Amino acid sequence: MPRSLAEDLAWSLVSLSAEVGLAQVSVRALARRTRMAPGTVTNHYASKGELVGICATVVGRWLASATAAHVDVRGALGLFPDTEDRTYRWLVSTWAQLRSAALTDPALDVRVRDADLGVVRAARWALAETTGERSPHPATWRCLENLRHDLVGPGTTLTPESALTMLVEVAQASRTS
Prior knowledge:
It is a single chain. The chain is mainly α. It has helices at about 5-20, 25-35, 40-45, 50-75, 85-100, 105-130, 140-150, 160-175. It has one domain (about 5-175): Tetracycline Repressor, domain 2.
C-alpha cells in the first residue's frame, strides 16, 4: 500500500493505532515500525503534530478509497467493515481516533475535516440509495460515523447488518423532523 515516506509513516500509524491506540503512538515508535532512524523522521517533520496531520490526510484518502471500493462490492453494507477485513477495520478505527484527537488539536481538526469530505463523497451514493436522501442529513452522517466506530470497537456485538438497519431508521426519523 505505501509508496512514499508519508504513506509509510501513515501505514505505521494505522497499524500502531490498531495495536496500542493513537495516544500511545510516538515518533520513535513510528520510526521503528518504518525501519527508519527517529532523526530521519524528525528531519522531515518538525513535530509529532505535523506528522500526525500529514498521516491524517493520507489515512482519510485511504479510508475514502476503501469505503468506495467496499460499497461498490457490497452496496450499502460496504459502509461498515466486516470482521474479517482487518485493513478496512484498522482504517475506520484509526480514523475514529484521529477524529477524537482533532477535538483538542485545531491544526489536526482542519486536516481531518478536509479529508472527511472524501469519505463523505465515497459514502454519499450508498446513503442516498439506502436512505432515500440525495444529500445525507447531518444526523444521518453522524450516525454512520458513530456506528462505524462502534462496529470496530473491542467486544462489540454490532454487525454490519444491524448497523445498516439503525442507520436507515435514523435517516427516516431525520426526514420527518
